[in-house]
Amino acid sequence: MRSGFRLAACVFSLVAATLVSGCVIAPVMPPRGLIYTDQKAPLFPGGEDGSKVGKSSAHSVLFLVGWGDSGMKKAMENGGIQEIRHSDYRVENYFLFYQRYTTIVYGE
């Protein structure tokens, strides 16, 4: 009985670790704070910024629920951009309770 409980606990821990690890993948993995993170970095460096800016975001709460579209196409639509000149991303984390990943595109 006891060994069955231990096996179930090990399996649950491995599955949980696997599922949670997929939530924190970014193109570049800068150091993140456990309590607070607000970082911005180039996604695809390019030339000049351009006159228009478009943003799109994806959100997560407690690594349990996630929603949103942080794709470049959505950011282009939101900013009315036809040609991307430069793009950045921004990662925000508030005590592992709420995370937001934002794609920022600059162009014309």
Can you describe this structure in just a few lines?
This protein is 26% helix and 41% strand. The chain is of the alpha+beta class and 108 residues long.
Give the proportion of residues in helices: 25-40%
Count of DSSP strands: 5
Largest β-sheet summary: 5 strands, antiparallel
Low-confidence stretches: none
As an assembly, this protein is single chain
Task: Count up the helices.
Answer: 2
- Structural class label: alpha+beta
Q: What Rg, in angstroms, do the CA atoms define?
A: 18 Å
Task: Estimate the mean pLDDT confidence.
Answer: 79
Termini separation comes to 66 Å
Fraction of residues in β-strands: 35-45%
**Helix and strand run:** HEEEHEE
Tally of structural domains: 1
The dominant shape is elongated
In spatial order, strands of the major sheet run 1-4-5-2-3
